[in-house]
Amino acid sequence: MTLNDKLEAYFKEHENEWIDGRALAEIAGFYGWRSRVSNLRRKRGMVIDNDPHVIVKRADGSTFKRSLYRYVPARPLGQGALWEATQA
Fold first, then answer.
1. 0.70 exceeded by the pTM?
2. What is the DSSP letter of 80?
3. What is the pLDDT of residues 26-52, one digit of tens each?
4. What DSSP state is assigned to residue 32?
5. E strands, the chain, in order
6. How far is Cα of residue 32 from the mean position of the Cα atoms in its chain?
């Protein structure tokens, strides 16, 4: 199983969940995980969102940006969040 395969499987096990980039680095390799996310988007057609604007405050008062990613599985046309809300 390649690192791309491992990353794809992890995303699919955690669909619609925001995942910290540091966790993805542990799964898909510290130096190449961002390229592997890109490969999944381009070569395998996966929709992977990114939110790089989560600010985390440390105990010492300093802050850093945490980059989050999530896999959004494809849905049949017309079955987005609005469609699901009307079906409840």
1. yes
2. S
3. 999 999 999 999 999 999 999 999 988
4. T
5. 19-20, 47-57, 63-72
6. 15
